Amino acid sequence: MTTLYLARHGETEWHAEHRYAGVSDVPLTARGLEQAAALATWAPTAGLAAVVASPLSRARASAQPAAEAAGLPLRIDSRLIEIDFGAGEGMSPGELAATYPDDWAGFERRPARHPLPGGEPGVDGVVRAMPALVELSEEFPDAGVLVVMHATLMRLLLCELIGLEPDGYRDVFPVVENCALMPVEFPWTGESGAPARARLLGLNVPPRPVE
Q1: Buried b vs exposed e over 145-169: b needs ≥16 C-beta within 10 Å?
Q2: Do residues 147 and 127 lie in contact, with contact meaning Cβ atoms separated by under 8 Å?
Q3: pTM above 0.90, yes or no
Q4: CB–CB of 162/189 below 8 Å?
Q5: For a Cys staple, 32 with which of 10, 58, 84, 204, CB 3.0–4.6 Å?
Q6: Known catalytic residues?
Q7: Cα separations (Å) of 75 from 8, 63, 153, 181?
Q8: Is the per-residue pLDDT at 114 higher than 80?
Q9: Which pLDDT belongs to residue 193?
């Protein structure tokens, strides 16, 4: 089994203000850079075989120090880009509720299937990104891989990996801390021999060096 260390990028100004960033290329704040540095302190102690990131600058800037610290090249996979929030990019929940009340209500009811205006359905993002994780598990069996991506896509993928309803991703995973780890073993058939999914090993694990 491959251990996938899923990690959200560091803090950006929009995220600090509770604004949807989506596919907008928003840079890290000073705090976000500090969070990336903490991830880099952990990386060389984790026995990683690869470091992979979304192409957005906030993910690349969060992953690059970890890759360098681990002595690995940073791999970029465009399939790991965040869900496109369309007209909601740069807006807060309150602004969305006031500007697009019907669409916001639909998004709140079924966030994986009812996109914001002009946006990407979350379930489509899963179809796009899941092959990237499958390929990593095939390329690096019995190894660890750090995958730096985005909060919404990560939560949707976790639901897919462990067999949960995707529209519940915000209830099951209400908070994804910046540069914290969500390690999963994948594929994992389980003790009952059920179809291959994944085993979630931790939630928002601080990236502290492994002793």
Answers
A1: bbbbbbbbbbbbbbbbbeebebbeb
A2: no
A3: yes
A4: no
A5: 10
A6: 9, 82
A7: 16, 9, 18, 18
A8: yes
A9: 62
CB atoms < 10 A from the CB of 45, how many?
A: 14
Percent of the chain past pLDDT 90, that is, above it, reads 94
User: What is the Cα–Cα distance from 160 to 95, expressed in whole angstroms?
Assistant: 30
- Give the other-Cβ count within 10 Å of 182's Cβ: 24
Q: Kindly report the backbone phi and psi dihedral angles of residue 21, in degrees, each rounded to the nearest multiple of 5, phi listed first.
A: -95, -40
Q: Please, which pLDDT band fits residue 134 given cuts at 50, 70 and 90?
A: very high
Distances (CA, A) of 199 to 2, 10, 190, 204: 11, 25, 8, 15
**What pLDDT is recorded for position 192?**
66
pLDDT at 211: 78
**Integer angstrom CA distances of residue 38 from 44, 119, 126, 137, 202:** 11, 33, 28, 25, 18
The pair of structure tokens assigned to 97 is: 């509720």
Whether the Cβ atoms of residue 11 and residue 31 lie closer than 8 Å to each other: yes
Distance CA 191, CA 73 (A): 36
